[in-house]
Amino acid sequence: MKKQAKFGIGISVIVISLACLAWLGYGESKTYYHTIAELQSLRGTQLSHRMRVGGTVAAGSIRRFTGRVDFVLEGEGKSLPVSYVGSDPLPDTFVDKSQALVEGRPTDGRFVAEVVQAKCASKYEAAPGGTVATSSTATK
Amino acid sequence: MDVFGSFALILAFVCAVFAFIGGIAAIITRHPLLVKSTRQAGIATCCLIFIATFSLEYLFFSDNFSAAYVVAHSNRALATFYKIAALWAGQEGSLLFWSFLLSIYVFSVLIAYRNKNGELMPYVGVILAGVQIFFLTLNNFVASPFKALAVPGANGAMDLVARSDGNGLTPLLQYPEMVIHPPNLYSGYTGFTIPFAFALAALLARYPGEKWIHLTRKWTMIAWCFQTAGILLGAHWAYAVLGWGGYWGWDPVENASLLPWLTGTAFLHSVMMQEKRGMMKVWNVWLVFSTFLLCILGTFLTRSGVVSSVHAFAQSSIGSWFVGFLVVIFLVCLVAYLKNRDYLKSENQLDAIVSRESSFLFNNLILLVSCIAVLSGTLFPVLSEAVSGSKISVGAPFFNKVNIPIGLLLLFLTGVGPLLAWRKTSVESLKRNFAWPLIIGLAGGAVIFALGYREIYSLICFSLCFFVAATIVMEFYRGAKVIRVRSSASYLTSAIELTMRNTRRYGGYIVHLGMVLIFIGLAGAAFNQNVQKELQPGGSMQLGKYKLVLQSFDSKPEANYTGLRLNVEVFVDGKPLMMLYPERRIFETNGETGTMVAIYSTLREDLYVVYAGQSPDTKLPVIHAYLNPLVKWIWFGGVIVVFGTLVALLPNRRAVLVLSGAKQPAPEPVVHGMTPSVTYKEGHD
User: Fold this and answer.
1) What global pTM score does this model have?
2) Hey, which residues 583-642 in chain B have their CB within 8 Å of chain A?
3) Shared-domain flag, residues A12 and A80
């Protein structure tokens, strides 16, 4: 029974310490996901959480300034003005009408994003008229 | 050709169904003709899938723009290299590609073992046919790559059309790496089907343990090798092409490829416990099952869009098919296990905590903890939505906090494990084996500390790397010394001879050495630096010991893109070192931009320069430069890992000790024509 106990203790020590680290890491990086429509109904502390919002980049809305890029995200009929203030260059897939995921916090009617992810357009099909349309639906 | 291809595909489906149903009948009736016939149906299924795949490729090469898939992913101007790769550029084609690679494995297995393991192969054939039926269902009825292009006509019916040219391959996929990474990774994913089939078959057939372990182990190593190569190629692609300065982002699709790798690695180690001491049989069986389930889960995560990721396939209802398949597989495994678990009873118990068994146990434990952590983190949005209604995702801090200590523990076990004895290690043995490596490890760590690198995890990592490298070198040295005694060859020749006599053990050590190199590369990340600056011609920026001077910039129109190129000169200590040409490409087809990173890579560090864009006010170029220490060690280590796996897969060279023939006239009869000899059995550890 003694060696079983030794193993048990060894295993528990490892598992518990890793669980603590996991908990700390979770706290540091947890990010809520909301749709644009949901944003308007958030109240109180929920607004101060770090969150992600997905949508489509409105055509012609991308404007670049020093230290900031403004654009409008559209989804489910609603639109959300976004300011990207991160230091990394925006991904190459970030163009008009691409699907984008922004991460940050809502501030004064705008959304201030620290991270912008745009979908890798690995599949698109042309509609019969020759116009290019994305065949994937917006992220839920 | 598309009709031909789709016909081959449906015929493959029919053959697979026959192989499955007939195979079950063959097991029950044991009729030899039925056994043979279903095996041949299995082989035919594979051949038909090959034909279907080649047909689709033919459509690409013949610029057949009446096929919807070709229109979506190819155009006349596309280079041949990329027309091949366009096969797996989209959902339907990549699913066919999955079936294709799986069929190569199934074909090889059915042919290689057609006259062996007669009790086991019928079961294996049925299981493989079952998996193929699932993917062929998708290929034929859910996501057919042979769909013809059609538009609604005047009277409401669909009219077939043919375009004059296609849409072309997405520019971001037109890189060589994107052509080698999917085949390697898919070969890993599909390859794990084979050990799964053998394990499940052995359980159902109650086949002797030693035999199925041997078979399963070999195929697992092959799949594992491809999976490792696939993961590292993906990381290299992200690093060298995407231009964000890193190689791993804990993105859900990246994690999906890591999960089966973790359980596969655990299996490759715990299997040795079963071979040597008849232990961990239940554990091993479930490890193999889990590895396969994680492969299917991986492709489900990638294709269904259930968690958001930068890698996107079109979101479709195909996800539900995979969930259904996962449930079916899990239930089959569970029932098979419950019915046959008495056949899996352990022959021995763990004897001591300081033993090789125990190090394998801890190795498996932490690999499994890592797997669970990465899986939970990846699926967290789905789990949290089910539990609390809001989608919460976790990012790099979570994954790194858990996996860095796990990695260090694994590194420690890599050094310690091989030197512990089976059952129980004596204190003398511990002292003898670990004295030097421990000293070297601590000394190495002290040197790094003295050089000014103080980050604690990196220090521990470097110390452990020195420690493990020392244990591996010691193992080779000791073994080579023994061989030298008899053969008086050089140390190098003896070491090679040593390796060839026990390829699995010493090939495994080479793999460990490769992993040590990878860990050295990973440890460098703690010391990454970067700087971003807007420059005019003649302007300069400093990063570490490098001074970057922007000499000029130009714009060059090419066939299907315009290249905006920067000419940057790099100076070290005032002396010119080289020119770098970071570039941005703007593609005509869809206005997307692509980044061409300029990297100056040495063993010490990578100087990584990106043309980040133009300043919106001044229109001057903005350069983002990174200094990433030790990255090259990762790629180099990966090559060593693959090499080591190949060595381990080689059959052992049998050492034959021939004594001189007995020629004296002895009263006892001597068997003529036979020289007494001693052969060493195939070496296990």
Assistant:
1) 0.88
2) 590-595, 610, 612-613, 615-617, 622, 624
3) no
